[in-house]
Amino acid sequence: MRVHLAALAVACTTLFACPATAHGPTPQKAELRTTIAASPDAVWKLAGDFAGIGAWHPLVRAVKATGGNAPGAERTLVLEKGEITDGLDTYDAATRSLSWRLNTENAEALPVSFYTTTLTVSGAGAGSAVVWNARFYRGDTSNFPPDELNDEAAVAAMTAFFEAGLEGLKAKVEGK
């Protein structure tokens, strides 16, 4: 009986110790804000068009979209290193907010494996405030991802994508 209990104790320790030492990816976050010298309605006219991101985001080379601004709509963004596909989750013109998620990943084009993101336009003095935030996972979700697909690469890529987009939106709306 002692041998069986000792073997059981070793087996249990081994079984439960492995998950404690393993880890997967943790969700990362990015949030950027900008102010635009235009009314929220003028900014929303561009930013609120789910299929229209190519008109103001300089990193988006082309957009193929279906479904308009209805939840469930999809768009494929053509980026420098490939395509990714987003699906629209929510669209609320009254609060000037839309949220979408990555449906089809391409870690070469954008080194993340999944994201959910929200873009919101609100009034800010005589202009507008635009907030773009996301929660996402790195491009390689294994325990030891290569540098180009790790958490830091994912944060850097999402931040750069948001920065370029917000700068492009601001320039387009302000006519610069």
Automatic annotation (TrEMBL):
Protein name per the record: SRPBCC family protein
Source species of the chain: Xanthobacter oligotrophicus
Keywords in alphabetical order: Signal
Signal is among the record's keywords: yes
Any matching Pfam family: Polyketide_cyc2
Listed InterPro entries: Polyketide_cyclase/dehydratase, START-like_dom_sf
Signal peptide positions on this chain: 1-22
